[in-house]
Amino acid sequence: MRVVHIKNPEQRDACLARLCAEAYGQDAGLTPLATFAGTLGVLVKQEAARVLALVDDQSRPVALALLVLDEIGSSMTVMLLADLDGESVTRPSERLVAELALKAPLRVDATGPEQEARFREAGITRWLDGKAGVRIGLGPKHPATSVAELPRALTFDEASVVQSFKRDRALFDDYKARFVRGLESFPATL
């Protein structure tokens, strides 16, 4: 097992498309496409996002994660996380988070007890109470000790991305084609 930072643009697009599709599911409307477009069009252009994969011993991706830098560049937040293969590797997304937490100042947001339990099993042991019932988990290398010390993760306005799709059909068609092409060309190995 190893963690791979996907830098090749075609592989990154394919992995991001698959991650968005897996994380949101088939009934999510435009959300997967808007996340794909916003991540590539805003966060990747600013070099503020990383797509990472956990690969098995045959270099097959078994879990994917999208990490986003905070506004001062001191830590990374797990924005999306998905298992691709739970048969050959037990709980691959938890293993990916565990590996990342050992190497980077990592933050995770849990919206419920099940998510928090998953992240605790992955080695996230420091927890803070965030807004609206969100629990914020910090990896061992994260420097913050309180919510007040947490810089905001960089993001984009999903509603603005959807609005830009409505105003600019060519933009929508371009991202849709890239998304579909990414899903179709998802790499068997990394």
From TrEMBL:
Source organism, top-level taxon: Bacteria
Protein name listed in UniProt: Uncharacterized protein
Record organism: Halomonas saccharevitans
Taxonomic lineage of the native organism: Bacteria, Pseudomonadati, Pseudomonadota, Gammaproteobacteria, Oceanospirillales
